[in-house]
Amino acid sequence: MPSAEPVRTAAVVTHGQPEAIGEALERLEKIAAGSGVELVYPQDEAEKHDREGDGDLAAADLVVVLGGDGTMLRALKRTLGTRTPVIGVNYGAVGFLTSIPAGDLEGGLERVFSGDYVVAELPTLEAESGGERLVAVNDVVVASSIVGRMIELGWAIGGEDLGELACDGVICSTPSGSTGYNLSNGGPVLVWGLDAQTVTFIAAHSLHARPLVVPRGRDVEIENRTPDVPAQVLVDGAPVTQLARGERVVARLGEQRTFLAHLPEATFFHRYRETFAS
Known about the structure:
The chain has helices at residues 24-35, 43-49, 69-78, 105-113, 181-184, 268-276; strands at 9-14, 38-40, 62-67, 86-90, 100-101, 118-129, 132-136, 139-144, 151-157, 160-167, 169-173, 196-202, 212-215, 220-224, 231-235, 238-243, 248-262. By secondary structure, it is of the alpha+beta class.
């Protein structure tokens, strides 16, 4: 039984390297035509694939991604504030956030276009530093700005001081970002549906630094206490500012949400088993 309304308009977002998706775009266009779905292309996608660029992600019923987790996160970020769900066909190395294997593009998208998909609402992070606020779909990272140099970070959660750690940095991650940089540093994976963030230190010079899961309403404050090394703040992998000694960034769960669409059987635990446990 369909779990959503049939799709009438779908926006297309693809891998940053067009050659990585091969003939997938032509296959997508064929199945869309057969399903009565109009495909639209944002301007950058149109230029990439020599298509007409009149796409508006906010006006589409759905965004279809041909790519991996990086492309999925990019599409989720572009749809902030629109409530437009994003579904992925996996053309990446991992593709945890996608739900349709590349080999099942036709069968999977036929079902999706008929409305046979569900949507998980996922929280974002808000990073505040120096009066500026930025939204992260994936993570907020504070790291040493000099490769190979350790930094001293003071940290507090919910206004309670938790001391100081020597480390290479710290990762504050959303559930959707928890399977990325956070996971590779030994952080916890957050199940879709949790309204929480992770706090995971990178190469901490301590036997007692353990990752934490922090609920909504508890701000995470990170302060650079290193005398001679600035700390770099990155939001979704992009450098946004540096913290001199005594300066801080606050990471909190934001008001905006992303909407991750997936096939009904491609649940979080199904994807976890297929991606990490096999």
